[in-house]
Amino acid sequence: MEKTVHQRYAIVTGSNKGIGFETARQLALQGIKVVLTSRDEKKGLEAVEKLKASGLSDDKVVFHQLDVTDPAIIKTLMEKAVHQRYAIVTGSNKGIGFETVRQLASEGIKVVLTSRDEKKGLDAVEKLKASGLSDDKVVFHQLDVTDPASIASLVNFIKTQFGKLDILVLYIYIYIHIHTYINELLVNLVGYIMRKYLINGNLQVNNAGILGIIIDLHAYKSANKLDGVPPKADDVIRETFEATKECLDTNYYGAKRMVDAFVPLLQLSDSPRIVNISSSSGLLKNIPNEGVKQELKNVENLTEERIDELLNKLLKDFKEGLLDKEGWPAKKSGYILSKAFLNAYTRILAKKYPQFLVNCVCPGLVKTDITYNFGELTAAEGAQSPVRLALLPQGGPSGNFFSRHETMSCF
Ligand SMILES: NC(=O)c1ccc[n+]([C@@H]2O[C@H](COP(=O)([O-])OP(=O)(O)OC[C@H]3O[C@@H](n4cnc5c(N)ncnc54)[C@H](OP(=O)(O)O)[C@@H]3O)[C@@H](O)[C@H]2O)c1
Q1: Signal peptide position in this chain (predicted)?
Q2: Which helix (H) or strand (E) holds 304?
């Protein structure tokens, strides 16, 4: 791809008033991104507000303190201009994604917070700003990873606004389908399912098993009423072909669509990073079929086309009731395989793009909406491991799976 950066940038010194101020306005009106500077921070911020109040869009003018008699500040400004890094975090209107945006932005990275719902995304950006994050560190763009037109629109935004991309953090999480109303029983139910259904016998605990499955609260409520004993997980959880397909489409193909779309912009970065948010559920030990396990592990022979074939076979076997016979996981097959395919894809990417650092990570069992706040970690703690991988220095690991901060040798 041609190394063309469409967005143009300008610094106007002494631009909190007078001709400098008007120059900043007129450049910004021409589509140039302007750094309005002033030696006095208060005056500069007020000038930016005045420009915005006069109708200039939020992302066209930013403030930086600058006294031209101070070489140290000039150096900082120059370094920022040259080294500004940009990140996209998918599914970041809430949960771990939201906290990842906050932590990356606090490190000086300009982050695009994305959400499939515009209102939720804009509210999330406001929340970050209200908590003290500076105006120019986080911007919103709509993104539904299952919609190619939405991805194309984001590519265009990044191209025209930033000209390159440094970090792509892929968080996507399908919400559980709840058949009936939410009541006080829900928290107990989710905790119960976590313990009985997902965590038992697995030291690398994660909540991910509720993805791609349907929890039937009617069944739970009626069973609970009968004898006061919680029902078996199998009695309240249903797995359907549609939910399984949607899970694979969002978790695996959603990430792949994003990578395919953004590789050209990542290639313009001098430190490209991709972080795929995976889960310990997707570890190979959870797949009974030895052949599939070996294929996913063998990065020398594995191809993206072969992953497509395996994924289609899984769906076909699901439809025909052959999961068990064909050696797929009997429970949460969609979620387990979506993450196992994502891990395998991470290996392929690391090999294909040696100049990138591409890794996947299980953030731990985190209290978020999806777990109805069941878990050991806060969203901010859950975000720490993906953020660390997004900020890996040159020469860091690539093609690895991390369980929080620990590398796993077999995944
Ligand atoms: N929480 C845990 O314990 C845990 C454990 C292991 C792995 N993980 C992984 O961590 C990641 C984040 O989960 P979380 O706990 O932060 O969940 P969360 O709070 O429910 O957040 C999920 C995010 O994904 C978005 N999303 C869903 N479908 C999407 C689509 N088609 N396009 C764009 N965005 C979409 C949601 O948007 P809406 O608000 O529009 O639904 C939301 O912003 C997931 O990949 C999950 O597998 C979490």
Answers
A1: none
A2: helix 304-319
Q: Which residue has the higher pLDDT, 6 or 155?
A: 155
- CATH code for the domain defined by 242-408: 3.40.50.720
- Nearest protein Cα to ligand 1, atom 34: 91
**Start and end residues for every CATH 3.40.50.720 domain found in the chain:** 9-81, 242-408
Q: What angle do CA 286, 289, 292 make, to 5 degrees?
A: 95
N- to C-terminal Cα separation, the chain? 33
The answer to whether residue 208 scores a pLDDT higher than 60 is: no
Least confidently predicted of 158-172, 248-262, 333-347 = 158-172
Whether the Cβ atoms of residue 97 and residue 169 lie closer than 8 Å to each other: yes
> Whose Cα sits closest to atom 37 in ligand 1?
91
Measured at the CA of 58, the angle between CA 56 and CA 63, to 5 degrees, comes to 95
Q: Half-sphere exposure of residue 256, counting CA atoms within 13 Å on the CB side?
A: 20
Distance, CA 136 to ligand 1 centroid (Å)? 25
Residues contacting residue 304 through CB under 8 Å, at least 6 positions apart: 256, 345, 348
SS3 assignment, position 407:
strand
Provide the 3-class DSSP secondary structure of residue 177.
strand
Q: Choose one of 92, 171, 204, 286 to mutate for the ligand 1 pocket test, by most ligand atoms within 8 angstroms of C-beta.
A: 171
Task: Kindly tell me if the per-residue pLDDT of 318 is higher than 90.
Answer: yes
Q: What are 50-91's pLDDT values in tens digits?
A: 999 999 887 788 888 888 777 777 767 666 665 678 999 999
279 lines ligand 1 (CB under 6 A): yes
pLDDT(220) > 80: no
Alpha-helix runs per DSSP H in 199-280: 217-227, 233-236, 241-248, 254-266
Q: What is the CATH number assigned to the segment(s) 9-81?
A: 3.40.50.720
Average pLDDT across the chain, whole number: 82
Ligand 1: centre distance to CA 15 (Å)? 43
Residue 249 is given by DSSP the state: I
Q: What is the token pair recorded at 375? A: 């878990």
